[in-house]
Structure formats: C-alpha cells, structure tokens
Amino acid sequence: MTYENLILEQVEHGIHRFTVNRPRALNALNPETLAELGAAVAEVAADPQARVLLLTGAGDKAFVAGADISRLADMGPVEGQRFCETALKVFRAIELLPIPVIALVNGYALGGGCELAMACDFIIASENAVFGQPEVNLGINAGFGGTQRLPRRVGAGMALELLLTGRQVKAEEALRIGLVNHVVPRDQLMAKGLEIARLIAAKAPLAVRYTKQLVQRGQDLDLENACALESQVFGLLCATEDKREGVRAFLEKRPARFQGR
Ligand code: HXC
C-alpha cells in the first residue's frame, strides 16, 4: 500500500511512528486518510517485532484538527453514519493493537483529532496542544467515539461540559483533568515519547500485551470478574519463558533478556 497522507517509520528497533501528514488542512481526517490509517494499523499488528507505536501529526500547529469539514458539507445521513463507522472501526483497531500506542499531541486535537488521541493508550502533549470537541458548533455530535471515550477519561461531568460547550482545553488544563499524562515543550515531545516507548519496549512483551488488555477489558467488567480475569492472566504469564527469565534475572542481580515467549 502506498501512503499519501500518512508517514510510517520505524524509529528504532520495535518502535514505530505514524505521522498524519496533511498539514495544509491541519491534518484533518478525510476518508482516504482513515483508510490509510486502517491499513497502517494492520501492518503494525502483523509485525511480531513491533513493541510500541507512536502517533503524531505533521507540522507545529496540529495533531489532527478533526474530521475533514469540507467532506461533511454534502454528507447525508447514510454517508454520515458510514463515515463515523469507518472511523470507529479504525480507532478500535488502534485500541486493540497488542502493543501500546502513545499519542504525541503537537497542537490542535479537536473533534476527530481528540477522539483519535483518546483511542490511544495514553497521551503526551506539547505545551501548544489544544484539545476539544467542537462538534456542537457544527450542529453535529462527536461521532468518532468522543461521547464515550471522553467521559471514560475525565469523568461524565467534565466530559459533558466540554462536549456541550465546545470549549477548548489547553495542555496544562488537559493535564489537570487527566486527559494527558505529560506536558513538554514542543521540541521535546518526540524525545519524551521515545523515552517512555523505550521503557515499555524493554519489558516482557507478553506481560505488556496482557496488562494493556486487562486494563481495557476490566473497564467493561464488574470488579469481581475483572479481578478474576487478572488472576487467570497472571497464571498464564507464569507459564512463559519471560517470567522465568525475569525472576531469575532479578535473583541473579542482572538485567533480564526478554524474548516474548
Ligand atoms: C478541514 C480544516 C479543518 C478541518 C482546519 N482546516 N481544520 N479543513 N477540516 N477539521 C483547514 C482550514 O480550512 C484552513 O484551510 C487550514 O486548515 C488552516 O486552518 P485555519 O482555520 O486557517 O487556521 P487557524 O485560524 O489557526 O485556526 C485553527 C483551528 C481552526 C482553530 C484549528 O482551523 C478550526 O476551528 N478548525 C476546525 C476544528 C473543528 O471544528 N474540528 C471538528 C471537526 S468535526 P485553508 O485552505 O483555508 O488554508 C469532527 C467530527 C467527527 O471532527 C465526527 C463526525 C463525523
């Protein structure tokens, strides 16, 4: 597949980066870009060496400024629903990747851009980042998962305020309300993303994969079933070579060499 609106790179061994690359339209998501994102996610999902995915936007102004508004103009109900379903499918594929995905938000993350960032496991923002769900200004609702993922991130009250007013939130407030994990100067965003990606990439791949799954799946279960699942996965990981190596390495006071099995 050739990519026109997306740059795919392997930054270093096991660490991949996708850059949404339509800076003239502030990286707005049109159907073509969504299709490319879906194909790229499938490529990374099929790579057994992949450990972490970083997702960012091209330029200094925007991560993704939303769905491409020029394409919304002539959209009727059938096309509108299809557009949302396509995006939801791609975003869900990002969420379900067996490796962690970190959004590096380098500017505006509005509408579908905020929703894309929230489909990632966590968000690191640069100081100029701006988040928001401005769909109410356009007479529509957040349709790429925002009405569901935003309350799960920041609680129903704050999510409703943002969804109902369209108010934009700067990086420091996003940090305070728990939408982002870190805020760093723009020129340190990639370095911070890489620093965390390297820490994760050095851990046991199966432990990382199942920990991500446990946190995600547990949010849709009651506490008892979620904890039962946790203990089952723990038992499963006790059968891995990486668990033997990790414990042995600790006792022998040396770094572990994990192999993902
Ligand atoms: C298409 C966009 C765009 C978008 C910006 N552009 N956002 N094009 N879709 N979402 C284009 C502009 O038209 C302009 O193109 C160029 O990018 C630069 O943008 P400006 O507006 O000139 O920049 P600035 O004045 O700095 O303002 C930045 C901004 C503003 C605050 C981010 O662009 C803005 O409000 N954008 C829309 C944000 C938004 O409403 N997003 C939600 C979309 S709906 P030209 O050609 O004039 O230079 C959504 C719903 C998803 O995401 C679910 C339902 C389908």
Automatic annotation (TrEMBL):
InterPro entries: ClpP/crotonase-like_dom_sf (IPR029045), Enoyl-CoA_hyd/isom_CS (IPR018376), Enoyl-CoA_hydra/iso (IPR001753), Enoyl-CoA_hydra_C (IPR014748). Keywords: Isomerase, Lyase. It comes from the Bacteria. GO terms for biological process: fatty acid beta-oxidation. One of its GO terms (molecular function) is isomerase activity. Gene3D superfamilies: 2-enoyl-CoA Hydratase, Chain A, domain 1, Lyase 2-enoyl-coa Hydratase, Chain A, domain 2. Belongs to the enoyl-CoA hydratase/isomerase family. This is Enoyl-CoA hydratase/isomerase family protein. It comes from Pelomicrobium methylotrophicum.
